[in-house]
Amino acid sequence: MSEAATDTLSVVIERDLSHAPETVWRALTEADLIGDWLMETDFRPVVGHRFDLRADWGKVDCEVLAVEPPHRLAYTWDAEPLRTRVTWTLTPTSTGTRLRMEQTGFQRDQPRFYGGAKQGWPRFLDGLDRVLEGIAA
Question: Least packed by Cβ within 10 Å: which of 34, 102, 113, 133?
Answer without folding.
Answer: 133
